[in-house]
Amino acid sequence: MSDAPLLKDTERTTGRSALQNNIQAAMALAGAVRSTLGPRGLDKLLIDDDGRTLVTNDGVTVLESAKVEHPVARMMINASSVQDKIARDGTTSTVLLSAEMLQNAWHLVTQDVHPAVIARGFRMAETYVHEVLDKLTIESKKEHRLLATRTSLAGKGHHSMQVLLSQLAVEAAEAIHVPSPDGNIADPTRVKILPQSGGSINDTRLVTGLVLAKNRIHEDMPRNVGAGKILLVDGGIERRSMNSDMNLKVTSPGVLESFRAKEVELLIEQVEHVKSLGIKLLACKEGIDDEARILLAESGIQAFRRVARSDLDLLARGCGAILVSEVKRAQASDLGAFISSKNEKWAGVAHWIVETEEGGATLIACGSTETVVGEVERCFADALGVACRMIEDNRLLAGGGATHVALARKLRRYAESIPGREQLGAEAFADALEVIPRVLAENSGLDPIDTLLQLVAEQVNGGAQSHHLGLDVVERKPVNAVEKGVLEPYLITRQSIAGATEAAISILRIDDVLWAKQDPSMPETPEME
Ligand code: ADP
Ligand code: MG
Questions:
Q1: What is the mean pLDDT of the chain?
Q2: Which residues contact 422 (CB under 8 A, 6 or more apart)?
């Protein structure tokens, strides 16, 4: 029976040619980020639809900004995005590993090994690799964590910026870490990044507490306030705006006056309610009208208006407060607590600094121009993500391809013990792991094959700590990566291998691709950002 009538609006590729197309798409994508891997990786200049430019070395940024339609390529991009979300690093490695696994699988498919068998081999290899990875880890001290954070910034910005930002990221992660029964937790979203153009990168610093570029709304309000209660309002203390189609019919003299008087009365009532709560600090998302402003100043409350929702959320978390949408509904249980609240002028700009029980920190990201500040922000966010992961699990692995070479060697030996054709899949997996040292070599202008062979040989002859031998991209020869301080968090490498395997297997399992034909009469749907 033919399925032609059913699928008449669908383009279909099946079997090998579907797999081949998909693998080609994955490899094309890996080709786009290959040259960015490692400290010697090159940058990409990205230009978006509006002509905005961004120079980046970050795999996931390149991929996410590419307008890719191929569904398989999108799957790979997703794997990289997930890696970015979970681990903040290892995004390029994930895509390279996955594409390499697929390429090696294709060689096997052409020799009539079934993709499902290869996928099973991959699964076995992955399980084994996770076991071994555990044993390759080293316990880390603080200085190691610093080095690992710096390694994660490899290729991003210049050396002194990497040193400074990794130091700040490790400090920030420590400032926000909270011990819990399930281990230490550090949530990077609790660190606020405040961009500040002007000055130099070296002015970038970490401040305990939450800092906002805001001034209190009345000079008479106290500049500094000691510990007390805070109210956070997801609205304002202001007159209702008459922006809807509302008509006010003035039928007799005095109506307008009484209307205005009522408005003021409502404002006063709100302020009275605020005062009755006994707070020292008030922050509103929207405005605070003049009458209310004066009354609040008189009662000694420090108040801020037009505070961004994201900042209110951070304050709410730090102070343990609940955002209220209307002032009059606020209750004692909605209030939060703070340790101190200060107004200070930095380089002529007013800043509001709140310290809370729950810690929290702010990075003041400085740089001469907005582009530089943007780079500082991005690098710090990445470094912070990595530093936070290391608070959760402080084990480290040797970088520079050392761990990948060691894993591949052990995996090949293990593969020999697999009786079926899955053995070939496991071997293909081992070969794929070596893509990391190979590309690192390539990007430092070395011959990838010779370098890999040299690395393997040195590891084989290297004794007990031989699995620490990786490529030094500066000296361009194998070195002990741990001694050199080229370290990678265990969680990141583990996640990158797991994510790459997942993506490769799901692509291998596709043997039928059905593309709905676009209806030419349909208007293009607008793109949603
Ligand atoms: P990813 O997006 O995968 O993190 P990167 O461009 O950050 O890609 O490169 C990470 C790789 O570079 C890791 O394998 C890491 O071990 C390696 N690397 C980083 N710094 C060095 C160094 N100084 N020497 C050798 N390899 C390094
Ligand atoms: Mg990286």
A1: 86
A2: 117, 118, 120, 121, 124
